[in-house]
Structures are given as structure tokens and as C-alpha cells.
Design goal:
31% strand, binds zinc ion, single chain, globular, five-stranded mixed beta sheet, binds phosphoribosyl ATP, 15 strands, 295 residues
């Protein structure tokens, strides 16, 4: 029997494309990819990549054309509400948050607008379902104007009074003389899978990939710290190491009053942390990145 292969959908080009590929690369999965290719096979993991528009990813995973997909939570949510409204199945699961592509879906008005009551207003957006859901929950009656891009010019064109668009730095809003009113949804990239009709061989591959992603994420959050500590200050120094369980204590050759302390910290090590360690008596403090972790 032919070996099962996972099909992973990622964005072809755009904000999520590079970070998605990068994540897979850090999971040790290599692809032979030439530009403009829509499909490519991994040379060292039973997986193939499908490069698509981000908006198409949830549906293709839902339909079974792909097993996994990387997509913004904003798109996942919007498509989910769209399916719900049409009573169509949306058998997708949000497997893991990937941490890139963070943004927020916010309401904004022209800077000069003093009246910010939404009732009865026209709101332009590319996320009509998410917006409508938010309005419904608050009992606000407003007209949703659907636009597929360049939402920020809607007030100037008098298409709408208010816009509801994705914001990351806020520069686009500022450049268009708009003021952010309120965030209605916060988003980041997520890994999604289909929940229906997945053969056990694929389940196994999904688990394997998830373990690797988990290892990459843990490694990102962790640092390896090495330092020298006077034996008499050891308890104080150990207490100043953030998020470290049972550090390794190693003797130092030819030195009787100091030991080396090695530990994995599962928290960020700030300069302040290092200064605190030094104040507690530590010296020769080294903080190293961790590339991979597997428990
Ligand atoms: O061709 P395809 O449909 O795949 O691409 P796309 O144009 O739909 O997507 P793309 O690459 O722009 O965005 C993909 C995903 O990135 C989105 O679905 C979000 O999950 C995420 N993301 C993160 C963003 C932003 N940040 C973002 N700032 N998507 C869009 N923007 C736009 C926003 O719409 C506005 O026009 O950037 C502008 C605002 O940015 P700031 O930095 O000026 O605030
Ligand atoms: Zn898109």
C-alpha cells in the first residue's frame, strides 16, 4: 500500500506565506519549492504543500482536499460563520495557535467624527459575518457594506461612516485620517485540521507534526542558562533563575567555593534577570537559545 501523505495548505503569497514555510522548516520538513509552484512535495517527510489564497484554505480543508491548513483566525472565524448561516457543515478544528500574523479586527471612524454611535450607521468591511455577529450580540442595528479591499477609503468615498478592518501597526488608519474605536476580534495564525473522515495513518502523521510544532514553540520560549555561583549563595542564585526546574550543579575544577549551574528556563530571560543573578552572587552568566526540545 502506498504510504499516507499529509496535505498542508498554506498561503501562496502574503503575510502568512513565509512564516508558515519557516515553521515547517523548523519542524525539519524540507520542500523543493520553485517560485509560482502551487504544489510541492517534501523530500524528507510524508507531506505535500498546497499554496493557495488564504480565503480558500478553510473550505479546502473542510472539503478534504487538504488535511491541514495555516490560516488567520479571522478568516477561520469568518468562514465558519458563513457556513453556519448557510447551514453547511464546517468540520474544522483549531489545532494550535502559531503566534505570527497577529492583528485585530477593529472599528474606526474619521478622526474628526465626534458622534461614534454605531446604531443606524453604514459600516464597511471584508468581514461581514464577524461584524454582523458582533452587532447582533449587542443589539445594534447598522448596515454592513461589504468591500473586498481598500476599506480605509470608504469614509472618504462616502460609502460608509465607519470601517471595520484588520489593524496591526495602526499606520494605515493613521495615514487615512482614521481613529480606532474598538477591537471586535483579535487574531493570529492558527493550524487547522479536518475532523471528519481522517484515516488513522494520517492521524499519526498529524500527531507527529504537532509534536514537532510543540517542540519548536517550547524551544522559542525557553533558554539555556549557564553561570558560576558561590556555593554559599547557591540557594539565592537558584531562586533568581526564572522558570527553571531542578538545575544541574556541576563542580568547577580547581575551585572549591564555586559551582557551575546549568538550567533550562521556560521563561524569557531579561537583562534585569541577569542583573538580579549577578546581584545574588552569580558570575560568568551565559544565556543560550535552544533550537529543539522533545520531552
Ligand atoms: O492573496 P490572499 O487572499 O492570500 O492575501 P490577503 O491579501 O487576503 O492576505 P494578507 O497577506 O494581507 O493577510 C493574510 C492574513 O494576515 C490576514 O488574514 C490576517 O490574519 C493576517 N494579518 C496580520 C493581516 C494584517 N496583520 C494586516 N495588517 N492582514 C491584513 N492586514 C492589512 C489590513 O487589512 C490593512 O489594510 O494591513 C493593513 C493595516 O496594517 P497596519 O500595519 O497599517 O495597521
Ligand atoms: Zn485573502
Amino acid at each position: 500500500m502506498e504510504q499516507a501523505r499529509l496535505r498542508i495548505a498554506i498561503q501562496k503569497s502574503g503575510r502568512l506565506a513565509e512564516p508558515s514555510l519557516d515553521l515547517l522548516k523548523r519542524c525539519g520538513i524540507r520542500f523543493n519549492r520553485s517560485k509560482d509552484q502551487l504544489f510541492c512535495q517534501s523530500t524528507n517527510f510524508p507531506a505535500d504543500l498546497l499554496m493557495l489564497r488564504d480565503d480558500d484554505i478553510p473550505e479546502l480543508v473542510n472539503e478534504g482536499a487538504c488535511d491541514l491548513g495555516v490560516v488567520g483566525l479571522n478568516v477561520f472565524q469568518e468562514k465558519g460563520l458563513e457556513h453556519k448561516a448557510r447551514h453547511r457543515p464546517y468540520d474544522l478544528e483549531r489545532l494550535v495557535d502559531l503566534g505570527f500574523g497577529t492583528c485585530r479586527l477593529s472599528l474606526a471612524v474619521p478622526k474628526g467624527a465626534s458622534d461614534v454611535v454605531l446604531q443606524g450607521k453604514k459600516i464597511a468591511t471584508s468581514y461581514p459575518e464577524t461584524l454582523q455577529d458582533w452587532l447582533n450580540q449587542r443589539g445594534i442595528d447598522a448596515t454592513v457594506v461589504i468591500m473586498s479591499g481598500a476599506i480605509e477609503i470608504a469614509p472618504r468615498l462616502q460609502i460608509a461612516d465607519v470601517i471595520c478592518d484588520l489593524v496591526s501597526t495602526g499606520e494605515t488608519l493613521a495615514a487615512n485620517g482614521l481613529r480606532e474605536l474598538e477591537t471586535i476580534f483579535t487574531s493570529q495564525s492558527i493550524l487547522i485540521r479536518r475532523t471528519r473522515d481522517v484515516p488513522p495513518e494520517k492521524e499519526e502523521l498529524i500527531d507527529r507534526l504537532l509534536r514537532r510544532i510543540n517542540g519548536v514553540q517550547k524551544a522559542d520560549e525557553s533558554k539555556y542558562i549557564m553561570l558560576h555561583s558561590p556555593i554559599e549563595a547557591l540557594e539565592k542564585v537558584k531562586a533568581a533563575i526564572p522558570g527553571a526546574e531542578s538545575p544541574t550543579i556541576v563542580p568547577l575544577q580547581g575551585v572549591s567555593d564555586k559551582v557551575a549551574v546549568h538550567a533550562v528556563c521556560n521563561e524569557t530571560v531579561f537583562w534585569e534577570t541577569m542583573e538580579n543573578l549577578k546581584a545574588a552572587g552569580a558570575s560568568a552568566i551565559l544565556v543560550l537559545p535552544i533550537e529543539k526540545m522533545l520531552d
